[in-house]
Amino acid sequence: MDAKDPDQLSPGEAQAELAALAQAISAANSAYHTDDAPVISDAEYDALKRRNSLLEQHFPQLKRQDSPSEQVGAALAEGFGKVPHRVAMLSLENAFDDADVTDFDERVRSFLNHQGALSYTAEPKIDGLSLSLRYEQGVLVQAATRGDGATGENVTANARTIPDIPQTIAGAPEVLEVRGEVYMSHADFAALNARQLAAGEKVFANPRNAAAGSLRQLDASITAARPLKFFAYAWGELSQPLAATQSAAIAQLAAFGFQTNPLTVLCAGPDEMLAQYRLIGERRASLGYDIDGVVYKVDDLALQARLGFRSTTPRWAIAHKFPAELAWTWIEAIDIQVGRTGALSPVARLTPVTVGGVVVSNATLHNEDYIQGRNSAGEEIRGGRDFRIGDFVQVYRAGDVIPKLADVDLTKRPDTAQPYHFPETCPQCGSPAIRAPGDSVRRCTGGLICPAQGVERLKHFVSRNAFDIEGLGAKQVEMFYHDDLLPVKTPADIFTLEERDNANPLQKLKNRDGFGETSVKKLWAAIEERRRISLERLLFGLGIRDVGEGAARDLARYYHSWTALIGAVDLAHPAALRQIAADEAEAQERAEASHQGRRAQLAKVRAAIWEADPLPSETTAAWSDLLSIDGIGAVLAVSLVTSLAPGGHEREAVDALIAQLREITPPPARASASPVAGLTVVFTGSLEKMTRAEAKARAEALGAKVAGSVSAKTDLLVAGPGAGSKAKDAEKHGVKMIDEDAWLALIGSSGA
């Protein structure tokens, strides 16, 4: 029942699985954060995200533009004012077994190059709703939910009704943001549901839903009547530090009058952390409130600052989650969903079943091989047992596996069950659905004529991390895409909506159901506002396969302008085609060559393709330059260049969009006074005073561009022992080369 090891997955299989994960996680985010009505348990959700991260680590070139690893929370609910978080409210990385906790400790030590004693706090992870409380001059002035991590909902009036939240604090810093979890005890939850039932009103599924729904009431008097509690465990913006350690800071919050969890303890390493995890797990049933794991944090706040953050999680904390459950149910149907890239993804529709306390009615089936009981190499999985409509199947969602059907009980298979035949045409547009050699994913060839691809690409374009056009969400995109009067088939069509609406005085948008004069004016204003967009949002919004938020950010920082980027794309296009030809030749040779001597033979085949007809120097330079960007590999580069190739349908649509935009803004200037601001830096060899990850983070914070390989555009090579080929490349291109001590002196750091 274990998930296939990523090393055993083909790129096609990994891509299909990542697509299914993105869809499942997005739906779970909306249900949990926006609707306060989770459809899967926390453990199941964490399993999805863990598998997603694992696959992204093994297949970085396949990271999606809507990757769940780049997201925190979900869109805000309507009805509340927006509150920008001055310090982002991030999610936590997850651990599921003892080895993960040990690995966390080793990663922290490796990042810091720390060999001595290292302490961590361990505290129960409360299953509630995150809340940030802002105090100024010791007075509560604002309360906000986490929202999407960057912006929350203003629930100040509601928070004031919670007894555990002080209205004033004596001796507090001038600015103090206290963060914690709003929750409801089991006893209070049972009493609330009894009152709801007696009054003929809705009962809640669990205490977390009850707490979240109570806090997010537009009428604060309803919140006041609900028995909410609050545990404080963190902080946001501070005018002065609370303490030097996490444990001392929590003690200070308790001294200010906040409830802090009594099971929070200081641990001297992984053994004590795991012992506390087991102790809390044993007491879980008797705590009187819901928890779903234990959170570990580096205790020394100075070390926390050095460790810093990834895009959505801190490096200095991890949540050790409790395991989920198994369940059995029936397959009622198998549906095919067509994604933005044309991938056909099978989904099992199940007789609803409770798994880990949550009702589940859908499960991914990955691809046609998985349905038929084999892997991409044709080898049997599950003993060769296939899945059929009508089967009695096991739903397994825990640990490092995604929500899926893990097995089938053949003794309960009905006589009418027939093998499932995967469609060879797209169910949305009827175009042929082709499965390329070596790819486990079947894809629609309809492209822009396929409504599923067109609609999904537009939904992505207007999504929160792309153009984020207020008032133009998924529902409105669906409507406009199929509209006869104001059709929106491409991104550029969005920016001509107002002009086209004005040209049709008889059937104005403001007179349609669901719209009005005020809402239409707001929509026009929101669209107009997005004529000015950042380069990284533009790149991400285009929905180019393999170009996720991280890649879009890296490309924007490197090229700095749309003109520079598209110019590089045009120059590099012949090289991208050459890369494709080399990949195809290697794939064919791989299928025919014997194992002995295969690597050398494959290298010869690839070299022959590249050397057959030399490309212009400006083409090879542009291609090498693109590949030198740290994190940009050949697969992503081919996808970017071929998608934006001049003369193609995609390029025509993009050019039409660019013509509608007023300004494409470059990435914000970073540390312009730094001596390395604007320089392209490459690190190689062994660094002794900081890890490679810390060196890269420091360089980028100082405004430098960090590349993965040396080219003619490299300004500086920082070389430690064992520099190897990059040092030779630096000599070849005349690039200045310095050692680690010189680098630290240049940026004004001792490396401590």
Compact summary:
The chain is α+β, with helices and mostly antiparallel strands and 752 residues long. The strands form seven sheets. Strands 2-11-10-3-9 form a five-stranded mixed sheet. A five-stranded antiparallel sheet has the order 14-13-12-15-16.
Mind explaining what this structure looks like?
The chain has 752 residues and is α+β, with helices and mostly antiparallel strands. The protein has five domains: 6-71 and 324-412, Nucleic acid-binding proteins (OB fold (Dihydrolipoamide Acetyltransferase, E2P), Beta Barrel); 96-321, D-amino Acid Aminotransferase, Chain A, domain 1 (2-Layer Sandwich); 450-489 and 496-530, Orthogonal Bundle (DNA polymerase, domain 1); 536-665, no CATH class; 680-747, Rossmann fold (3-Layer(aba) Sandwich), CATH 3.40.50. A five-stranded mixed β-sheet has the order 2-11-10-3-9. Strands 14-13-12-15-16 form a five-stranded antiparallel β-sheet. A hairpin with a 2-residue loop joins strand 4 (129-136) and strand 5. Helix 1 runs antiparallel to helix 2 and helix 19 packs across helix 21 (617-628). The chain starts with 10 loop residues before the first helix and ends in a 5-residue tail after the last helix. The model is unreliable at 73-78 and 398-402 (pLDDT under 50).
